[in-house]
Write a structure and sequence with these properties.
single chain; about 40% helix; alpha/beta; 5 strands; 9 helices
């Protein structure tokens, strides 16, 4: 068992999603709102406010952990950094830049884990095959015709030429897909993609097909707890 400090990229979605994901695998873990409340089986979350702003939060996070461990009986055992790969375009470049920042700011003094979201967090949610409609409306048709995420790996989807980023397009795709069954999704409304049933479907997709493979970064960390 370990206590950990999570530094996540987004200021809204990740702060709502990760506690639900963690609870699905480890319901015994508790999120604390104040760092001083860290105790057995608990974690603290902090937003990096996007990329590249997240990198400016690494040094204060490391300093927080070192100071906390110096002054408390309870210990923070790990810094966990969670971020999308779409800003730098791929996993390798994102991982390299993140390790660089961690090492530069004292990361070798603590243990750390990097969880990459390829290309973005919504890509994981697109991995639920049951959420893809078998019959769909004209609203969703351009998305389903562009790329069928129930059959093809959502991490390999490219944005149409008229879209500025795959991250933004994936958000639109997920919202339209869920709308087909009367559900909603936005950066602040994530309840329909964080149920135990929805998470189980993502998990099953990964294990059965190898799709949304970056979800395994998160699953592997859950196995360490």
């Amino acid at each position: 068992m370990m206590n950990f400090y999570m530094l996540v990229e987004g200021k809204s979605t990740e702060m709502k999603v990760y506690p639900k994901l963690i609870a699905a695998y480890h319901p015994e873990y508790q999120q604390v709102k104040r760092l001083d409340d860290i105790s057995e089986n608990s974690y603290y979350m902090f937003s990096g406010q996007g990329i590249p702003s997240l990198y400016n939060k690494i040094e204060p996070a490391i300093e927080d952990i070192i100071e906390f461990n110096r002054t408390h009986n309870s210990q923070i055992h790990r810094l966990v950094v969670c971020l999308d790969t779409d800003y730098y375009g791929n996993e390798a470049a994102t991982h390299f830049r993140t390790v660089q920042e961690l090492v530069k700011h004292g990361g070798m003094k603590i243990e750390f884990t990097i969880i990459l979201q390829t290309m973005c967090l919504e890509t994981w949610f697109l991995g639920n095959r049951k959420a893809f409609p078998s019959v769909y409306s004209s609203e969703f048709k351009p998305y389903g015709a562009h790329y069928n995420v129930s059959e093809e790996d959502p991490e390999k989807m490219q944005a149409p030429e008229e879209e500025s980023s795959i991250g933004g397009y994936s958000k639109k795709y997920l919202k339209k897909m869920l709308n087909e069954s009367g559900k909603t999704y936005s950066v602040s409304q994530v309840k329909h993609v964080t149920t135990k049933e929805y998470i189980d479907e993502m998990d099953g997709r990964l294990e059965e097909t190898g799709h949304i493979h970056s979800y395994r970064y998160f699953k592997d960390f859950m196995k360490e707890l």
